[in-house]
Design a protein that fits this description.
- This protein is mostly helical.
- It has four helices and no strands.
- Helix 1 (4-12) packs across helix 3 and helix 3 packs across helix 4.
- It is elongated, with a radius of gyration of 16 Å.
- The model has no long low-confidence stretch (mean pLDDT 76).
């Protein structure tokens, strides 16, 4: 969440300036960013659990696996942004 949320905020223009000028709009956009980040993470966790249930030898505890998961989530966000535009 700490990686995805700032990326979404930057992409959608959710800034401190917006917060100062229009707090209601800032809250609306932040809620949308948080919801999108949560859905992306939940989808990846479900997918990872499905893979692990198919092959119990799969382990996601190595740092390189976390890096791969974060990069995958970043790519998913970028692709989802392209679809919504």
């Amino acid at each position: 969440m700490d990686v995805i949320l700032p990326q979404l905020m930057k992409y959608y223009g959710v800034t401190e300036q917006l917060k100062a000028e229009n707090q209601i709009e800032w809250v609306r956009q932040m809620n949308a960013c948080v919801a999108q980040a949560e859905e992306t993470i939940k989808g990846e966790l479900i997918y990872a659990n499905e893979l692990k249930s198919q092959d119990p030898t799969i382990s996601y505890r190595k740092p390189s696996d976390r890096y791969f998961l974060v990069k995958s989530l970043s790519l998913l966000i970028q692709n989802s942004r392209r679809k919504t535009l």
